[in-house]
Structure prediction request, 391 residues.
Amino acid sequence: MALFDAPVSIYLDSNATTRIHPEVIDAMMPYLTEHWQIPSGRYASAARVREAVDLARNEVADLIGAAPEEILFTSGGTESNNTALKSLAREVGRTHSKIIISAIEHRAVSRPVGAMGAVGFEVEKAAVDADGRVEPAGFREAVDGARPGFASVMWANDETGVLQPLAEIAAIVKGANWYLHSDAVAAVGRVAVRVDEVPVDFLSLSAHKIHGPKGIGALFIRKGTPFEPMVRGCGAENGRRGGTENVASIVGFGKAAALAKAALERGEDGRLRALRDRFEEAVERGLGTGPDRVQWNGSREHRTPTVANGSVPGLLAADLIPALDAAGVECSGCLGESTGKGQDCHVLKAMGFEPDRVLGSLRFSLSTFNTEEEIDEAASRVVATVRRLRG
Prediction:
């Protein structure tokens, strides 16, 4: 008998969002109830609220090796990306400048940069290899030190988990006196992300990817980097973002960051890597090694410990995802244009895969809440579902 009955779902979509940690909820609750004052208030009850925001800023900064004053709280990763990119665009100007992004960036980067291209900026997309990694040699050729410009390359890809050679890219970009932004939403909390080791100028984070609340993110802005606010209003965030601070969510983000830092320090990434490998090996055993075997997508060496992206020959993700959902496994995948959501599976396309492999790709992403028992059961359900769909 299976450990879990089919109606009990096993969640393996943590690159989409994570379950909020109970300790995060506990940290937030006082700032939704008794300590509800605005942090800019000039009365005693607001002092505690200001202290809580300051503590959270320190906790987020500690997670990535930044100074607290280099952290700007935003509404999430998308706002952080847009804020950094639009500030950089204003700084370099559209005359004689150039923007380079990787071919596998999240839409929160590629779409605002695409809009810049539509109004006259020169934009180039750096290619990736079959492992899903930016090729430094080609990237170096694209960077033109004789012109002003900036680059945006993600720390880790959200679909494949593949880590980018960001230290090499940063050396190239800074050597040309360009600015560098990195979307680290899919990396922070899963691997060590250190701005004191990699000289990015801007770095984007999101709380709900590390067991924090939705609707809150942060942007690291290196001290001395020119910055233009995207949201103007009153003087919140030291004048860098208008609007009243979302105190409870900021506190939750801080707690989530502290928990993520502690987890990395105790080796939680190693446990998750072992779980991911256990899942992949079980699926491989169940589906065999012939032409119908699962094909894993992305670098096997350079990736976050939480993501397994694989394609099943002869089957489409559009059929597999609802079938797996019915079997009690929640995951995501490439659904193509038929969904009406404009998901054109650009990451695996950029890696050079054939359409069948692209449209058959599934992403299974783990979190600290997953157990060995869940992973074993999930792999069993995946194998049984694939066999059933193949008849």
User: Anything to note?
Assistant: The two ends are 23 Å apart (CA to CA).
